[in-house]
Every structure is written in C-alpha cells, then in structure tokens.
RNA sequence: GCGCCCAUAGCUCAGUAGGAUAGAGCGGCGGAUUCCUAAUCCGCAGGCCACAGGUUCAAAUCCUGUUGGGCGCACCA
C-alpha cells in the first residue's frame, strides 16, 4: 500500500512542478494516532530546492492528488501531509489478501540464485547456543528472501580438513587407546568434553580395536568416524531446532576436486601474489586489507584463507549471484581479507555480504556460564531447546538485532517461559482463528469482499489493525533488503497487540459490522500465519 | 596501539534508512471478565536517549572527540 501511495504522490509532484528528479525523496509512513492513516514529510525536504515553504509545497501538491484510494488529505504542523484512505483502498487490498492469501506477499521469481551460508560449525563438537543464533538468523533470512522471489539455497560448510580435525581425532584416540588396553597421553589443547569419550566408546563398541595396528592408531579412520558421528549429532540438533539445509558442503571436497590447486593458479596468474620466507603471499593490501595474507605456508600446506577463497570461487561457479555468509563475532577479522580475496579472484564486489552476529552470553542464577569447546564446559543448543522449547528458543534468538550482544538468562527463561512473547503470538493466533471457526459453526456466512464496506470500521482499534495489515507487505520487503530479521518478531507482536486491543473491546460475531469484522480478522489471520511461518514458529489452533 | 560493534525507563530490549508528543515487555501501583480463549485489555508511575561539541528547518538516528563494555588484528580455523 505504501508503494501505491508513493506512486500517487510522485504523480502529483510531477503534475505540480513538472519534474520527477526528487522522486526518491518521497517516503510514506504510518500516520500518528488520530492524524489519518498514512503520512509523508517530503515537503520539508523539497523546501530548500524549490525555495518555498513546506506548508506551501504541501498545499500545492495535495491539490493535485487525485486518487480513489484517498478519501481525505490534510496538512499538519507546517508541512506534513496526512492521508485518510477510502473504502475502495481497503476493499482492494484486503480483498487481494483474502483471495491470494500468502501468495499476495510473494514476489515474482527473479531468477537470481542466492546462497545463505550459516552455522558451519566445525564438526569437532556439539552445537552451542551461539550456533543457534546464527542458525535462526540464516534460516529466517532464507525464508524471507525466498518470499522476495530469490532462488535461495541454504548451505552448511563443514570444515573437515584443518588441523582442528587432527586435534579432534587425537582427543578421541586417547580414550580409544585406553579402551583397547594401551597406554595413552591426552593431547595438549585437546578437546575435553564428555562427548569425546562417548565417541571413543561408540567406536570401540562397534569396531573393537580394528583401528589400531601394531599399537599405532589409524588417525584418518578415527577422524572420519568422529566426523560422521558429530555431523549426525549436529543434524539431529538442527532438526530439533527446525533448521534444515539444502546443501552440506565439505571442505575436504575442495582438495579432492583439485579446486584448491586451481585457486593457487588463479592467484598466481592474477599477479597479486609474491613469494616470501618460502610462503606464497596474496597482496590483499591492494584491496583495503591492512596486511598481506599467506595463501600457501612455507611447509607447502594451504592456509584456511586460501581454501576459503577456493570455496567462494566454487560458490560463484555454481551460479550464485549473491552469497550471504553469517559468521560469529570471532570471525570478524576475516571479513576484509575475504572481500579482498573475492576481488583478487576477479569476482564482483557485491558478490559477498557478511552478517556478523555478536556473542551470546548465557547467565544462570545471575552468573555467566562460560562456554568453550576446549574446556568442555558449555551449554549445548540441544540442552537449551530442551529447557525452553523450540519456538521460544527461535523467537528469543530472533528478537535481538545481530550486531548487539545477546544476554540469555537461563534462569529467567526457564522460570518465565510462559511469559515469553512467543506464547503471546501463538495465543493471539489461536484466538483469532477461533472467531472464524465459531462464526462458521454459527452459520454466519461471509458474503465476500464486494459486500463489505470498510468505511463502517471507524473504531480506533479497527483502524489501527487495518493499517497495520496494509503495511506488512512493505515491511517484509524492507526487512529482507536490510537483512534485519530481528524485526520480524516485533512485527508479529505489534500485529497481535492491535488484534488483542480490538478483540478485547469489540465483538465480531453478532455485531453490526459483522461482515467487515470477519473480513478484518480473516486478513489478520492470513498475515499472522505468514509471519509465523517465516519465523518457523509453530501455529497452534488452540492453546 | 589500530579497526569494528555496542551504550535508550529499575531489568531485557525496540525505535521502521534524519521527521510530528522517544516506545514495548518484565517488575511496581490502580482498574476491567453475565459476552468469540483473562496466556487478554485499559490506565498511572518511571527518560539529561553514556558525556561534550558540530551539521540540519528537524538528531536517539549523521560527523568529531571523550568515557565505559565487547570483538578482531596468525604461515589457527
């Protein structure tokens, strides 16, 4: 609806001043209470350019606004223009929602392949709560981008080739050797969690001492076993969390396919490399980095940096035009080098967007719970979901914008889980649905949009709810554009507040404007259902 | 030291790409239920938007500096 109003205003501006160079300056926002339905403040912006007062501009332009969608137009506070919408505007809009349902909010396929890569935690341990935060941001963003018509794929990058994996294998080996009756020494900096022991026990249970030959453990085989075990665990946790990936991409596959070697060649041929101290360096300072980066170590081993470059080249080769990587704050330092690598390989500058989410701090009984895979002292995502439930966990993670720290108070979450806003939204949904159900049972027939007259809905609560619905499509578009998925729960809460305010004060069934109110509630249910689907929150028919 | 993120009500946080009187939840106080789900609603109290300057008709929002908290600055991943 906002888009439509913008168009109407722009036409009026052209008609008034004969030019449209100011087009982008026009913004339509919801009007403050009691000042109509929507508003714009563009006359202030035009004042300097046109050498006229905002008041005058508002007057001149509003005289040229001619649209059946607008019932009333008024000027306030020296230059704001406020609109009151006509019955036709509501009828058209609500009518479309009624007939097309979710599809009304879906944009036409753009034919653009977009990849969202997230979680991508090393398969050296269970997912922790921070991975949950990345998981929900990625999952919901993917949903949102799909709605906007992009061809979206969700991908998990499995780092199964680095030195961390060796350490992981050696940690398992320690317990495995002991189970097989050998002496063993726990590796320095090894992974200490209880799960390491469990993997070793599982390995021993299944294969006894098959992976020890002449007292020497088969590191690769143990690594593979541990990796598969961990990935299986991770997939289970994600499923419980409602997160599913289209593609599981293995780092090791880049070695096998020769793409790592290929990438070295690309960089060497680009002329952006040099040899120093026996290593191959990339001149990333040419692309805004503050130091050059090593691609191949003096030992001949490729660095993580190089492999990541190969990985992103691979993404490009698969036809993605846009790649969104979602990383924890600890990877912050990698953004600039990564973008430099993209440019160094000759890929477009806007190919990669990175979303950084800040650390999740867990609190229990007022004290912070320290989390580290190395000490083994951490709360897993699994445990969190068991404590507060999938819906609450998703909603809570989603609620804060990615770039602010998230304090998750477990004690509070456990104690007050029934006060969690997710229940508010689910309850409201069930309640509204019940009206439609009751109306059906009572034999109340909805006669269709043509038989409704929204100008009859003049109560404050009715207008607020109607206008909130009219903004949703534009809201979703702008949220997708800025990747600000944290606004989704707020959007749903806002809608619910308005719905509940209406519900509390006015009856639907048997009321004078029953037709119009049924239409309003029906549209609210459709919109709320859509937003809950986007967030991956379960819709309950009764609570 | 350098770079980035954060600082808004007692607590947890929003603040729609500079706009009208800065909002919500929780907590506190006071109300509402013969009626579609009270897991609800309405009202009151609570603010130097960290601090100091600047830009603008207009700043919580943009710029500069200061303070406090966090993250990053590897031939780790």
Q: Helix/strand/pairing class, anyone? A: alpha/beta
First-last Cα distance: 33 Å
**Which descriptor suits the 3D outline?**
globular
Ranges where pLDDT stays below 50 over 5 or more residues in a row are none
Helix content percent band: 40-55%
Describe the main β-sheet briefly.
5 strands, parallel
Q: Order of strands in the sheet with the most strands?
A: 9-6-5-13-14
State which percent range the strand residues make up.
Answer: 5-15%
- Based on DSSP secondary structure assignment, what is the total number of beta strands? 17
Reported CATH architecture of the largest domain: 3-Layer(aba) Sandwich
Query: How many domains in all?
Result: 4
**CATH topology type of the largest domain:** Rossmann fold
Summed up, the helix count is: 19
What's the gyration radius in Å? 29 Å
- CATH homologous superfamily label of the largest domain: HUPs
Q: Which helices and strands, and how do they pair?
A:
Layout: H1 2-17, E1 28-30, E2 38-40, H2 42-50, H3 54-63, E3 70-76, E4 80-85, H4 87-100, E5 113-117, H5 129-147, E6 151-158, H6 163-179, H7 194-207, E7 212-213, E8 216-217, H8 219-241, E9 247-250, H9 251-256, H10 259-270, E10 273-276, E11 279-282, E12 293-296, H11 304-317, E13 322-328, H12 335-344, E14 352-357, E15 360-364, E16 367-369, H13 381-388, H14 390-398, E17 406-409, H15 410-415, H16 421-441, H17 460-482, H18 487-505, H19 514-535
Parallel strand pairs: 5-6, 5-13, 6-9, 13-14, 15-17
Antiparallel strand pairs: 1-2, 2-4, 3-4, 7-8, 10-11, 11-12, 15-16
The structure holds one RNA strand of 77 nucleotides.
């Amino acid at each position: 609806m906002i888009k439509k109003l913008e168009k109407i205003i722009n036409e009026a501006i052209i008609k008034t001043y004969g030019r449209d160079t100011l087009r982008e300056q026009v913004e339509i926002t919801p009007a403050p209470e009691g000042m109509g339905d929507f508003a714009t403040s563009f006359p202030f912006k035009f004042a300097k350019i046109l050498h006229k007062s905002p008041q005058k501009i508002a007057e001149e332009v509003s005289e040229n606004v001619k649209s059946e969608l607008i019932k009333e137009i008024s000027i306030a506070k020296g230059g704001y223009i406020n609109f009151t919408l006509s019955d036709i505007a509501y009828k058209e809009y609500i009518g479309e929602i009624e007939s097309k349902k979710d599809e009304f909010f879906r944009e036409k396929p753009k034919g653009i392949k977009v990849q969202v890569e997230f979680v991508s935690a090393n398969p050296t341990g269970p997912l922790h709560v921070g991975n949950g935060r990345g998981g929900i941001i990625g999952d919901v963003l993917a949903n949102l981008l799909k709605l906007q018509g992009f061809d979206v794929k969700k991908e998990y990058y499995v780092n199964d080739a680095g030195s961390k994996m060796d350490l992981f294998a050696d940690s398992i080996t320690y317990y495995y050797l002991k189970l097989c009756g050998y002496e063993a020494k726990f590796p320095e900096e090894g992974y200490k969690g209880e799960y390491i022991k469990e993997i070793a026990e599982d390995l021993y249970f299944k294969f006894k001492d098959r992976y020890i030959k002449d007292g020497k453990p088969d590191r690769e085989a143990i690594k593979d076993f541990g990796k598969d075990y961990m990935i299986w665990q991770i997939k289970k946790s994600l499923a419980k969390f409602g997160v599913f990936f289209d593609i599981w991409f293995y780092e090791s596959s880049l070695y096998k396919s020769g793409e790592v070697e290929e990438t070295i060649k690309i960089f060497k041929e680009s002329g952006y490399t040099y040899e120093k101290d026996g290593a191959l360096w990339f001149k990333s300072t040419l692309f805004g980095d503050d130091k050059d980066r090593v691609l191949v170590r003096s030992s001949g081993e490729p660095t993580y940096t190089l492999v990541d470059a190969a990985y992103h080249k691979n993404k490009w080769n698969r036809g993605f035009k846009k790649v969104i990587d979602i990383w924890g704050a600890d990877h912050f330092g990698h953004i600039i080098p990564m973008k430099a690598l993209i440019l160094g390989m000759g890929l477009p500058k806007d190919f990669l967007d990175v979303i950084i989410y800040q650390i999740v701090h867990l609190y229990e009984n007022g004290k912070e719970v320290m989390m580290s895979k190395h000490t083994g002292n951490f709360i897993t995502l699994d445990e969190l979901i068991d404590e507060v439930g999938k819906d609450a966990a998703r909603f809570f993670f989603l609620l804060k914008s990615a770039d602010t720290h998230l304090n998750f108070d477990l004690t509070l979450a456990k104690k007050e889980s029934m006060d969690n806003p997710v229940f508010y939204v689910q309850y409201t949904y069930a309640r509204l649905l019940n009206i439609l159900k009751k109306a059906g049972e009572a034999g109340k027939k909805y006669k269709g949009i043509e038989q409704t007259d929204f100008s009859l809905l003049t109560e404050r609560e009715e207008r607020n709810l109607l206008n909130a619905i009219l903004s949703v499509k534009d809201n979703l578009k702008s949220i997708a554009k800025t990747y600000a998925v944290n606004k989704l729960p707020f959007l749903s809460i806002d809608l619910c507040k308005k719905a509940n305010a209406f519900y509390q004060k006015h009856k639907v069934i048997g009321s004078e404007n029953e037709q119009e109110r049924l239409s309003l509630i029906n549209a609210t249910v459709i919109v709320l259902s859509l937003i809950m689907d986007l967030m991956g929150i379960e819709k309950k028919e009764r609570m």
